[in-house]
Automatic annotation (TrEMBL):
Protein name (record): BTB domain-containing protein
Gene3D superfamilies recorded: Potassium Channel Kv1.1, Chain A
Species for this entry: Pseudomassariella vexata
Length: 246
């Protein structure tokens, strides 16, 4: 389905460096034949999001919706990022975001990735901090970008920090295993043996023992790993003299 719009090159050039370069230069996307208007070709965009953007850039404020769904906001953000017209849409974007931001996802999901992209495009550092924090705590692997133009460096940085967080937990547990194995705990042989065996068994049961430090840590999140650690059981044992709870 082809959508045609009659647009003002002056408005487009003022609002967007992209359009300014395209309409001034010999670009294929912006051509003009003798006796005709400029023709601007755009493919793969959401037509509704593109129409809203053009309304904003042309000052047709009455045609701009006062609220949109997160899905539409993300599609709109794709256009803003591509055409570099952040300043021209800033007030409208902030109005839309303010009506949605009270319901940020608390777990890793598709909506959280959409919010990540929206907060990045519109420079909402406060939202970006909250969203990346949730991703770091809840994601189990590299960020799935949903084919959004999220910078690869950002994706890699988030996953690196996630792995480092899980790595810190594993480091503490493996150091504790060595501590008990090498009899540095100060307790009796029986005591350290029971604790070492119990810790090894619990880590294996909860899938932590097989996670190797320095490896690519996928399939587990920081929160899931921490929850598993907090649920590790301590053994109870008896001696001839008395009862101990270790």
């Amino acid at each position: 389905l082809e959508t045609r719009m009659r647009l003002s090159s002056r408005h487009l050039m003022l609002a967007s460096p992209y359009f300014d370069s395209m309409l001034k230069g010999p670009w294929q996307e912006g051509t003009k034949e003798p006796g005709s208007d400029y023709s601007v070709y755009a493919e793969d965009w959401d037509s509704d999001a593109l129409l809203i953007l053009m309304y904003i850039l042309h000052g047709r404020n009455r045609n701009v919706p006062r609220s949109v769904r997160l899905e539409m906001l993300a599609k709109f953000a794709v256009l803003v990022d591509y055409y570099k017209c952040h300043e021209a849409v800033e007030l409208v974007a902030e109005m839309w975001i303010s009506r949605l931001e009270h319901d940020l996802p608390k777990e890793y999901c598709r909506e959280l990735v959409l919010w990540l992209f929206v907060s990045w495009v519109f420079s909402r550092a406060d939202l970006f901090k909250v969203i990346t924090g949730t991703i770091l705590m809840e994601s189990k692997g590299a960020l799935q970008t949903l084919r959004l133009p999220i910078p690869e460096k950002l994706v890699d940085t988030i996953d690196q920090k996630r792995q480092e967080s899980v790595e810190q937990i594993l480091a503490v547990l493996h150091d504790l295993l060595l501590y008990l194995r090498d009899d540095r705990s100060g307790c009796t042989f029986e005591c350290s043996s029971i604790l070492l065996g119990a810790l090894t068994k619990e880590m294996n049961t909860k899938g932590i023992l097989s996670l190797e430090r320095g490896s690519l840590l996928t399939g587990t999140s920081f929160n899931a790993t921490m929850k598993a650690v907090l649920n590790i059981r301590s053994p109870r044992w008896y001696s001839n003299a008395s009862y101990y709870g270790a």
